Description:
- Helix 1 crosses helix 2.
- The strands form 2 sheets. The chain has a 5-stranded mixed β-sheet with strand order 3-2-1-4-5, sandwiched between helices.
- The chain starts with a strand and ends with a helix.
- Helix 2 links the parallel strand 4 and strand 5.
- It is of the alpha/beta class.
- Helix content is 35%, strand content 28%.
- It folds into 2 domains: 2-93 and 186-200, ATPase, nucleotide binding domain (Nucleotidyltransferase, domain 5), CATH 3.30.420; 95-184, ATPase, nucleotide binding domain (Nucleotidyltransferase, domain 5).
Amino acid sequence: xxxxxxxxxxxxxxxxxxxxxxxxxxxxxxxxxxxxxxxxxxxxxxxxxxxxxxxxxxxxxxxxxxxxxxxxxxxxxxxxxxxxxxxxxxxxxxxxxxxxxxxxxxxxxxxxxxxxxxxxxxxxxxxxxxxxxxxxxxxxxxxxxxxxxxxxxxxxxxxxxxxxxxxxxxxxxxxxxxxxxxxxxxxxxxxxxxxxxxxxxxxxxxxxxxxxxxxxxxxxxxxxxxxxxxxxxxxx
Length: 236
């Protein structure tokens, strides 16, 4: 039995799987409440499935990019469980989890997560001859630059807002295929499937060294009062 944890953005998701096959899943809008909502939902999914935590033999976690607080909570919880239970831990890119539902389409898949400041986090994936490949690594860019770099029909997926969707369609026309509605939700069942593939290939992460994939540092603003106070102190 495996437990998959994804708290990368305001949409959070948990899954229980058996050798990668989905048993149960919870996906909800967590907003900024990952800290208070994650553990109760872990308990809920275990109880619903009548599974004891000691029956869990591996932990999968979405490692980012995403929100700083969400990733911190999810990865800290996953590492704590892996340490406490003495079981394997597997970290998977949140963008890869976003793209994986469309693997069978055989087109390039461009997952998008909002990165703030008018920018996005993205990557590029595609399934080819049964192999799941990363064509471009995770990076920060803009919708404009993404459009200029897109040369063939591509699936754009993830938490794409209305303005971004309109921009992609206007610039790329029929080159841009954009899922809508519930298809935009990132689900931990796919994280479980990807994590199990990693486990089968012998790939694990060290709980002591696994870190969130932030792509950039958080913006830190120094309060104006603090600046004035320090300046006044120096002038005395």
